[in-house]
């Protein structure tokens, strides 16, 4: 057996735990990227809902202009963040498509 292959296998085995979740991180079904994306999506929708409620209240004369401007700014920030994330995902996808197979 080639000693270089043995060393490579040993180094791979030593590096493998680095890819596992750190102790204390949530594990199991429904945890991880999918759960995080679900939380972000629900936060995004909640920001929109709150902005709409404040806008309706302002149209009815029940909210002041300051709260309306603040709600609109939060909604604008959420949209800009979503567009930035979308652009990064599209850019990563295009980069993957350019990779030689």
Automatic annotation (TrEMBL):
Q: Where is this region: Disordered?
A: 17-37
List the record's Gene Ontology CC terms alphabetically: bacterial-type flagellum basal body
Q: State any GO BP term from the record.
A: bacterial-type flagellum-dependent cell motility
Its annotated compartments are:
Bacterial flagellum basal body
Q: Which UniProt keywords apply?
A: Bacterial flagellum, Cell projection, Cilium, Flagellum
Q: Which Pfam families match?
A: FliE
Give a yes or no for keyword Nucleotide-binding in this entry: no
Is DNA-binding given among the entry's keywords?
A: no
Tell me one GO molecular function of this protein.
structural molecule activity
Report the family membership: Belongs to the FliE family.
The protein depicted here goes by the name Flagellar hook-basal body complex protein FliE
Native species of this protein? Answer: Pseudooceanicola marinus
Whichever gene encodes this chain, its name is fliE
């Amino acid at each position: 057996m080639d000693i270089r292959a043995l060393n490579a296998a040993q180094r791979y085995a030593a590096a493998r735990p680095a890819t596992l979740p750190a102790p204390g991180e949530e594990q199991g079904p429904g945890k991880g990227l999918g759960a995080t994306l679900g939380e972000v999506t629900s936060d995004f929708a909640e920001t929109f809902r709150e902005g709409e409620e404040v806008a309706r209240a302002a149209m009815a004369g029940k909210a002041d202009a300051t709260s309306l401007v603040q709600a609109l700014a939060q909604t604008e920030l959420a949209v800009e963040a979503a567009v930035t994330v979308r652009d990064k995902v599209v850019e990563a996808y295009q980069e993957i498509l350019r990779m030689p197979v």
